[in-house]
Structure formats: C-alpha cells, structure tokens
Write the structure tokens for this entry.
Amino acid sequence: MFEIYKKHIAKMESRISKIEASPDPTKLLSNKLRYELERDKMLEEIHAFEGGQLIGHSVCGIGARLFVAMGAHYIHPSITADSVFSPYARQLLDIGVKLGFPERGCERTILPIAAIADKQMPPPSFTVATTDSCDWMAHECEAIARMVGCPSYTIDTSPIHDEKGLNYITDQMYEMVDYLHKKVPGLRSFADSEEDLAVLQERYGKMFGHIREVYKFMMHVPSPLPNGETFRIPWLDRLPKNGLDKSETYFRMFRDEVGERVVKKIEGVPGERLRIMLAVSGPFYSDLLKYLEKRQIAMVVVYNGLVPSYVGVAPSMFDKNVFGRKLSPMEVEARRQQDISWGSMGEIWAEHGVRLCQAFQCDAILYLLQSGCTPTLGTWKLLAEKAEKELGIPTLAYDGRMMISDEYDEKKLHDLVDIFFEMKS
Amino acid sequence: MNQLRKLLSLSADEKKSRVQIAKQCKDQGRKIIGVGCSHVPEELIHAAGLIPWRLTGVKRSNLTKVAEYRPITWTEPYVNHVLESAFCGDYDYLDGMVCTNWNDDRRQLYDIWNRMKFTPFVHFMHLPRNANKLAVDEYMRQINILKNEIEKYFKVTITDSALWESINLYNKWRELMMEIYGMRTQEVPVLSGEEAMRISTASFFMPMNELVKELELIIAELKNGRKSTSSREKRIIVTGDFIDDPKFINLIEKSGALVVMDDLETTSRNFWGEVEVNGDPIYALAHRYIVKRVPGPRAFFWGHNGGGLDQLIKWYREYKCDGIIELALRDSFARLFVRPQLTKRLALENIPGLNLDIEYNYDREEQLRTRIEAFIESL
C-alpha cells in the first residue's frame, strides 16, 4: 500500500541528505526545508489513514484551513498528482481507463482517482467538490466519493467573481459544514472551528505574503531563479497539518534567499536575453525549461489559475477590503474559490495574462495547449490577441499532454521554440 | 399525414428552412436571439417579443476558421461547429446570443462569440450544477439579470403577464411533445426515432406559436392510426447530450432496431417537465430549469438521488427497451467523466449498453454501423 508515496518520501529524504552533506551554493538552501515539508506531509497522510483519522479531499484549497480547523487532514488530490504521480502517470492512467475514464483527458484529475483505487493514495473520509476551476476538477472529488462510498458535498461557483457570487458560495459553505458535521462522525461543527479557522487564515496570510514578495522579486531583471525553480514556486495547498511552524520558516527563508539573489544580481539564467511567461504548464516530462535556459531565455512566471492572485494582479482571498468591507472567516474561505483565473470568463483570463506579462516584463508567451485542459484550450487566442495588441508580444501555442509522454516529440518542440525565438530575435 | 410530412420536410432541409424562417421573421421586423443551451429560459426571450433560436452548427466537414481560436481536436465538437458557423456568417441574421456554462466549452462559446462580437447583444448566464434551494435562488438571480439586460438593450418591458403568457405557450409545447413521446411506448410506435428527433428539434427554428399549432394537428393525425412503416425487433433508447442530427438515429434504425426513446439535451430533456404556473414567474422558471427538468451529466446529482441516470433507467423500462446506446460527443468531458457511472449502473441493472464516441456532424458511418449492428445482433 502507498508504494508510490513511499518512493516519493525516499526521494525527498535522499535530497535532504544530499543538501545536508554538501549544499550546492548555486541552488536554494531553503529547498531542504521544502523537501522536509513534502516528506512530512506525505508521512502525515499515511499515518492519518493508518490511525483512522479523518481525511478530507477537495480541489479548491479551502480544506487546507477549513478541514484542518474542523479536525481533519486535508489532501488536494490534483496537486498531489502534480508533485508525486507524474513519474507513474502511464501506469495510473491505465488503471483510470480500466475504471472507465477517458484515455485522453485531464491527467491530474484522473490519476488521483486511479491512485486511490490502486491504494496509492489515502482515501477520504469525505470530499468537497467545487466548480471553481473546471469541469474535470468539479467532478473529480465527486467521483472519488462515489468510488469509496463517503459523504460528499458540492459547492457551485459562478465564473463571475463579484460580491453576489461570493454570497452564493458562502451560503453553500455554511450548508456544507453543517452537512459534513452531521454525516462525518468526529468532524467538529463550524461554530467550534471558526476561531481556529481565523487563526489559520492569519498564519496562511503571512506565508502568502512571503510568496507574493517572491513574485515581486521575480519581476526584477535579470530573473533571480533558474527556470526549474521558477516553475515550482510553491502554493499553500499542500502543507502538513502539524507543520505550520516549519512552513512559516520555509517561506520566510525562501523569500529571503530570492531577495538576496536580487540584491546580488545573481542571474538565474546566465546571460538572460529574453523573458517569457509559460501559460498553463509545461509538459512535465519535457526538457523545455532547460532548453530555454541554454538559449538564455528566462521563464519568469508560470501562468496557471492561481498565479494572478498570488502576484496581486487579481485580488486574493488574503487581501483585505476586496468588496470594501471586512469579511468573516467563512467569507474569506469562500473567496478562495474566486481566486482562480481560468475558472472565470475568457476575457478575465486574457486580462490577467496580459497584466502578468506586463508586471514580469515578458517578451513572449509560451502557451501549452494541454490535452484535456478544457478551461484553457479554448481561450489561448483571447490571451494571445490581447498580448499582441496591448504589449506587442507574440505567443507560441504548442500542444502536448501534461504528464503522459507517449506522443512527445522532443525535436519537434525544440524546432518550434527555435523558430519562434529566431523570429522574436 | 400532411402536417407531419410538412414538418418533417422542413426539418429534412434544416439549413434551408432555418434561413427561410429567419428571413421571414426579419422581414416582419422580429429580432432573433441565438440560444446556446437548453437551460436558457426561452420563455423570457419570447415574452420580450424576441424569437429564441437554438444554435446548431451547419456541420461542415472542415473547420478552418474556428481552428484559429481553438484546437478542434480535444475540444467539444458542438461548440466548434457552432463557432465555425458564426465565423462563416451563417448567423448574420441573429440580433443576440445567450448561453450558459453548461460546460467549459460552452463558456468559451460565449467568450469567443463575445470577443468577435458576432452579434451586438451577447449574454452569459451562470448555470448552477446543484438542484437545491440555493441553486434555484442563484438561477433566479441570473434570470433576473438576463431580463434586465434584454429590457435595457432591446428597450422593451417584460411584464409578468407577458411572461406567464409565454410560459403557458411553452408549457403547451411541452405537453404536446410529452404526448407525442408517450405514443412511442406503444408496441408498434407511431413514429420512428428519426421522426421524433425531427419533431423535437423543430422548436429550434420554428416560432413557438406556429409550432404548437402544427403539433396539435400532428397529434390528431397520429391518433388516427398511423403506424411506422416497418416492424423492428429491437427497441433502443439513445442517451447523450447535444446531438441534433437525425442521421445518427436513422443509422441505428437502419441497423435493425427502432429508437423508441431518446435522452438528449436536444430532445426529451429539452421539454420534459413543465413550469409550475403559480407565484413568481421568475421563480417558476428557475425551479423548472434547475429542479424539474431532467438533468444532464453536468449536474452533480446526475448519477444518484433521482437524477438523470435514474430517469434514463426509468425510461428504459417504461418504453420497454432492449438496450441503451450512448452517443457521446467526442471530447465532451462532462459526458465522458460520468461514463463509469453509466457503465456500472447498466451492469447492475443487467441492461445491455453500447458506448459510441461520435462527431457532431454525421461522420464515420461504416465504423459506427459495424458496432451498432453487432450490438443489436447481440440483444
């Protein structure tokens, strides 16, 4: 059971040992803490399952604080897939296909379902499905709940992120916590959890602030981080429940290290001559980021759904007075579901993308037409046209799968990139 | 069978009929609003004196214009065909377009339509995926926003009495359609599946008051003892979503079966369940479109709690079917994601099922025929 988890934990421990034995001065020292947190999180999940503790699955990030405040552990199945399951993508997708899911679809939603079926990920005691991102993630947690036979609640989010939309989400969340409190023995009521939730939001808000500062550093020229490190600038949805002190230390240290690199004018990509925004993702199995580095092209920001709110081109759940008033802890949590740009309307996706390019002084956009990514496949041109019109910057759209490398043609991607940047130069 | 023949022939050359009827409406000074989803409350548009017009793609074999905006593989073909039609000017007669986020692709139908300004009026409605009180309240809010936007843009006032009048008209249409569909439970049904689909989809382009009159006459004809022209052994119910090309149904029927019922957004789910005529008309509409109508697979409760899957099984038994054929639009992920639920439930109920992934335009006939014939033979 959990063989993949255990292999990943061993990988983290190996990296930790390596850094302890002889830290590479060109790399981030804070990565040691990062790997420790990753290891701790996964061990925590295994122990929680083995100890019969409550585990909630949700893909909207609210579980990181709300489930924890209510006494459960939190797993974000898709972020777990990103971090852990990618090397086993084909094996897990085959299981997903046997379960009846499509071969070609959103891998980060199908892989967790397959992983639970194959006893590679702790199953939930309950799930909360949300529509804040896309069709796939909306159905993922519902499918998981159906498979394991646990209670599930669905929160419906409008793609228009206004105050009335917030009220709609908040009302559902109150219903949700009541429902889960009744259906899941041992889960605290919201009344008993609200104070703890507020404390967690405060602590997460501070860590969020550190990440936002990192993004501000990334706006400097030259980029202080190599492309690989930029790609994995962390989110807050995968921290160990009992590891918040270490998490706070990590984010502070990470911020300080990146800041120091800016002060010392350390070039993350030596000889940086061009800066690009990577939209959606980059295929996980490709060497695209290293290939760009060889061409002195710095990938300074990854445009995925959450980044605009992390950076500040869109308001985040931790920003105060978004609607001109103080929000209650439940409303703050509800705001998390309005933080996702690709869950909103196409013009918002385009607008946020252009603002990111502007903020990070990008010269071009590389946009992955990711197979199965329904919210971003049909909006690439909206962003590309707007970027061209407002900033005069071009977009290269290239297709690929996120984690399955069966059809990957490295030479074709390299050639596309070379031609694109030759034209750009 | 003159009325039936007349309606069927209108539908047979749908593109021509649509253009002709649209021209007639425009010549009368009427404004036409494209509707991109069966959850848009057409009654509201009708009450404003506008003509709701269901968007269907012209089903070209090559999609070149939309391909500049969306990869046409890995994205839902219905939306691709509708957008291609828009890019080609097929909808130049439309004065507006309203759609929902039935799925991510449909949200992008709005996004691209709005960016290109294919029509001067474009409106998006958020469609909840639950069917509880909060979802109904939210959809009421959305319907009120649509009402305000229509009134502002088209300089009309939609009174409650006008709205109730439209609701009653649409309820009449639903009642007549359910009566026609009820006749398909007979041992030798009065209509083929292809004919039933053509009658269902006539509402996409015929003004409703005219259609209701036609249907009343057609029912009278059907009651006078029409039988389908050939006997077929196996009774099939078709399930899917945005399929509106009767050739798919015809293919199944040429393969030795009779399609006695269809569970589609374009047919039964479009008209099943009337609006309750009491209280606030906006609430009545929201309640019908969120709670009363049969849900499609986008709804979270589709697979349980009396949702769409339960209704499919109920229809299977009511229409005395021998098998279920799922016609799933390629890359329509709302449908593909729930396929494991469908498969599991059919196995539990011991119901033979066939899953087919199809294009929106009628294509790959031989491949489909082979699989359908083999399935029907196995029944």
User: Anything to note?
Assistant: The CA atoms of residues 186 and 353 of chain A lie 43 Å apart. The mean pLDDT of chain A is 95.
